[in-house]
Amino acid sequence: MIRLSPQFRAAVQRSTLPALILLSGAMVVAAKTDQTMFEGLRTGIGDVAAPVLDIVSRPLGAFEAAAGQVRGFLGVYQENRRLEEDNQRLLQWQQVALKLTTENRQLQGLLKVVPDRAMSYVTARVIANSGGAYVRTVMVNAGADNGLARGQATITGDGLVGRLTEVGSRAARVLLITDLNSRIPVKIEGSHTSAVLAGDNSERPRLLYVGTPESVKIGDRVVTSGEGGVFPPDLPVGMVSATDGGILRVEPFVELSQLGYVLVVDYGLSASLPQPVLPQARPGRRAKVASSEETPTQPIAR
Amino acid sequence: MAIRDFTAPALPRVNGGAAWLVPVLTTIIASLLTILPLRIPGYAALTPALALMAVYHWTIYRPDLLPALALFAIGIGEDLLTGGLVGVGPLTLLVTRAVVLRARRHFVGRSFPSVWAGFTMIAGGALLGLWALHCLLEVSLLNPRNTVFRLVLTIAVFPVASFLLGRIQRALIDGPRLMRRH
């Protein structure tokens, strides 16, 4: 082993901390100016960490399931009564739905409507969240190996969760609709007013560029518009929950802090997404760019 | 071996084996705990800054065993896994270490309330600093609500973390005799 003089060693030791602080600061600036810079490293680390996180997060799921069982056992009587009432109501709705489906099919046949593209789904488990960082993302335990691709919509049974932004071979990152960088083309159901759903890291994202804001009421349902062709149309997103000071906010249908399993929707369009932009060509945000530019040239099957 | 370089009263040698890895390992575990998907409403946004607690504790009691390079690596790993801006994690942890190192003599050997008060100041500085940094980077005034809640939660959880870390330190690194001296 090389013997260094004590003075030299002390000098190195003293300067390590300031040097690393400066390096971190420089990395922040670099990462901010070129958001694609660390993407390769990110997906790489994600792939390596995915099996570990997968295993570590499993006991949590088991624990939650056990707690849920205990809770369920305690409230079994009320739950049963509630379900019976629900069931009565839903059976009526089923009749209505069946009737409408038949009618809809007949009318579509009369009008020769081009059918919607078929969607396929991949189910993935959430293995990590953003842990207090100033982003709203989750990592899921599926990647390109399972057929996932950048830009695909992620949903649960309740509604839209977000969009895949980074896809490794075994893990992928979902940018939640509440993230500061998330922009989703949506429309208000009923009035068909189109808007852009913009996250701001709060629990309730805002509606921007609303066509006719005066027609939007609290309680209106917000669904994806499918504009830009990246997302399938009519995925439920949330409900308009506030109109204070002209800012419309949407309460998402999905409880985004309690995601367990999510579905990744393959709408057969992800290949048409622009690849990560080159830094010199476009220094802006990746997330803003990826959603709609360049894609309207794609044929939209509606 | 390099234990004596840091501070004037020489830190005791580590008991043995892989015990010197404990501070780094506990910091990694703390950092992992914050990204695990616990399904508690609002947890992702309000997760207490557990890694900050580990850095604070070890920088006061055993700065030799949690070197700056390890903090840098842990911070980068955290940023890459959370999807946050790369560099912010190590910046927070390293600046915390630098500040705690400077104020270390005020904390070593003090009663728990003053250690807690010290952490309140450090955590407040770190989390509000983070908020200010992100406001600057986004060129907009971000809502400080979550940051304030997160800070309160972090300060509230600290006694538990401090107790656990103290126990781990006593059991694995110092041995009971040496802790009493602090």
Description:
The complex is a heterodimer of chains A (302) and B (182). Chain A is an alpha+beta fold. Chain A has a six-stranded antiparallel barrel. A six-stranded antiparallel beta barrel of chain A has the order 6-7-8-11-10-9. Chain A starts with 5 loop residues before the first helix and ends in a 10-residue tail after the last helix. Chain A is built from four helices and twelve strands. Chain A is 35% helix and 22% strand. Chain A has helices spanning 6-33, 39-74, 76-111, 286-292; strands at 120-129, 137-140, 153-155, 160-167, 172-176, 183-188, 194-198, 206-208, 221-224, 236-242, 248-252, 261-266. Chain A has a single domain (10-74, 114-273, 284-302), classed as Beta Barrel (Thrombin, subunit H). Chain A is globular. Chain B has 182 residues and is an all-alpha fold. Chain B has a single domain, classed as Orthogonal Bundle (Arp2/3 complex 21 kDa subunit ARPC3). In chain B, 70% of the residues lie in helices and 0% in strands. Chain B has eight helices and no strands. In chain B, helix 1 (22-35) packs parallel to helix 4. Chain B starts with 21 loop residues before the first helix and ends with a helix. At the A-B interface, helix 1, helix 2, strand 1 and strand 2 of A face helix 1, helix 2, helix 4, helix 5 and helix 6 of B.
Secondary structure class of chain A reads alpha+beta
Mean pLDDT of chain B: 83
Query: Per CATH, what is the topology of chain B?
Result: Arp2/3 complex 21 kDa subunit ARPC3
Radius of gyration of chain A equals 24 Å
The run of helices and strands of chain A is HHHEEEEEEEEEEEEH
Please state the structural category of chain B.
mainly alpha
What fraction of residues of chain A sit in β-strands?
15-25%
> Could you state the CATH homologous superfamily of chain A?
Rod shape-determining protein MreC, domain 2
Number of helices of chain A: 4
